[in-house]
Amino acid sequence: MFEIDPRSATPIYEQIIKKMKELCIKGVLKPGDKLPSVREMSSMIIANPNTVSKAYKELEREGLIETLRGRGTFVSKMVQKKLDEEKIEMIKEELRQIMIDAFYAGISFEQIYQWMKDMNNEFANAFHK
Amino acid sequence: MFEIDPRSATPIYEQIIKKMKELCIKGVLKPGDKLPSVREMSSMIIANPNTVSKAYKELEREGLIETLRGRGTFVSKMVQKKLDEEKIEMIKEELRQIMIDAFYAGISFEQIYQWMKDMNNEFANAFHK
Amino acid sequence: MFEIDPRSATPIYEQIIKKMKELCIKGVLKPGDKLPSVREMSSMIIANPNTVSKAYKELEREGLIETLRGRGTFVSKMVQKKLDEEKIEMIKEELRQIMIDAFYAGISFEQIYQWMKDMNNEFANAFHK
Amino acid sequence: MFEIDPRSATPIYEQIIKKMKELCIKGVLKPGDKLPSVREMSSMIIANPNTVSKAYKELEREGLIETLRGRGTFVSKMVQKKLDEEKIEMIKEELRQIMIDAFYAGISFEQIYQWMKDMNNEFANAFHK
DNA sequence: GTGGTCTAGACCACC
DNA sequence: GTGGTCTAGACCACT
């Protein structure tokens, strides 16, 4: 359920954030669900507690999770999708980069579109809710 | 033509690589074209020759450019689109990440698809060769 | 244990790579072993950290070692001997060159074969695993 | 007959030297044969005359070819195989390196030995003359 | 502590 | 002229 690759170039704390977001969007983690504590999580994925803490703090800053003192950390009930112009530009730029990489890897436009549709389905049609 | 942002979080050498790939894919740089020498480029974008060199070497490793000893660096004549399974998985993973980020940024599926189509048109020559 | 010749024509970073491969193949370095940090190694062999870093990165690219962010560099657990057709051709070409050089140096075929056998014994564990 | 790769990492002048030695050892070039002039050769392989000249000079220094003023350059009649201790050590070191590379490429000892025998045959049994 | 990136400047071999 | 290698030292993010 929660796989982290310490060999990856992407920082561990970032991998945690991404995984968390994915689990939420897929509906595996639902609003109100309790998350493992920092200590539990760090021993689960064999990482430094500081690293897990950093990820949790960032997720809280983004509003995906909430920490209730003495009770634990929970998935937020309402996730507000904020239209951050800067963030949107970043995503667009990343998409452009993927298109370029895909070209050099010999992947067709149609293939990418197919993947996109598959992912949307996998994400419980998050985009159409 | 060649803009680099030294303040960006993405390393300069990576920015060069991306820019180069984009110029090749758009047809601004054609097979056989001579690239600016390491020294020229470094003074153009105000960066260290080593940084430019690093970018050039990576581009050569990927097969996009070739260096002829003592003569300079040139855009490769044959860019073989090799179907590297590992690379494809990586791209797919990146696409998945973008879809997730897009959702949280409140970007619609249709919007992303529109962007993709626009980019595809922009790179039209290359993609439909 | 780790001798480098700064006067040699072969670059220092390449000497490090070769030495490392030899130590791995001889079993002196075992899978999972921690390598000296870039700084340690650079002071050990009296070279610049950048030079050591370059060697480590190449070894990682080849899959012999792995770097765990913030923790250090380690000998890979699974070194997959991938049958890269291009690499094999390169080795064959190098062997051809050696045979030619050996002829002009007055070395007999039998002598070369003897050397090969000796080396094979030296690397025995690795070769017959 | 005479192929040079300007993209290769090995210098062009060295490629010429190696090719020449190979042609001699194979018996394609026989003692007394006339070589193309520097100018001819340079236009043949599309290289700078200086580069060809450098190769010829080195080959002459090694005793493989001889220049007769006003007549041209010829393959030497007697090639003395000199037993240079330093050279021999170098070759042995190169052989060791190949054995290591071969291991990581998944090539067996037997395969290498077979290649060696094939090459010896190809070289008109130079080693057994 | 670790490796990743970068600058400033140097020397070398090759063409 | 070109790129390849190297040093000395710096800053940064990650663990």
TrEMBL record, chains A, B, C, D:
Name of the molecule in the record: GntR family transcriptional regulator
SMART domains cross-referenced by the UniProt entry: HTH_GNTR
Any GO MF annotation of the entry: DNA binding
Signal peptide: none
Keywords, sorted A to Z: DNA-binding, Transcription, Transcription regulation
PANTHER family for the chain: HTH-TYPE TRANSCRIPTIONAL REPRESSOR YTRA
Listed InterPro entries: Tscrpt_reg_HTH_GntR, WH-like_DNA-bd_sf, WH_DNA-bd_sf
